[in-house]
Design goal:
Elements lengths: L3 E10 L12 E6 L4 E6 L12 E5 L13 E6 L1 H17 L15
Parallel strand pairs: 3-5
Antiparallel strand pairs: 1-2, 1-4, 2-3, 4-5
């Protein structure tokens, strides 16, 4: 089974606009499930990713650490197709049941 995550780029962090120890590019991304995470951008598309892009993030296991996902942006999904995919995920998130987590009251004797 293969795993991917969809997100919208909020900011791009590159050596052009930051002090950097390398030439890698990261993107601050809002994921469809309302998390904000910074991901590495694959070097082959690092000059193409921009704020507002809908991106696909590779969540497949790494070879050396099979329980850790790769978490790298591998595709930019352009225009209408990207917006459509984003809306599919957001609608799914909106409709799914909300789980309330409640902790039992604790008595403290000290």
């Amino acid at each position: 089974m293969v795993y991917y995550h969809v997100g919208r780029v909020l900011e791009v962090l590159s050596e052009k606009d930051t002090e950097s120890s390398d030439l890698s590019v990261q993107a601050v991304v809002e994921t469809w499930d309302e998390n904000i995470i910074t991901y590495l951008v694959d070097p082959r598309i690092k000059d193409k990713v921009k704020v507002g892009d809908i991106v696909l993030i590779d969540y497949n296991p790494t070879e050396k650490q099979p329980f850790r996902p790769k978490e790298i942006i591998i595709k930019i999904i352009p225009g209408e197709k990207g917006e459509k995919i984003w809306s599919y995920y957001k609608e799914f998130f909106r409709k799914r049941p909300k789980v309330k987590v409640s902790a039992p009251e604790q008595s403290y004797i000290g």
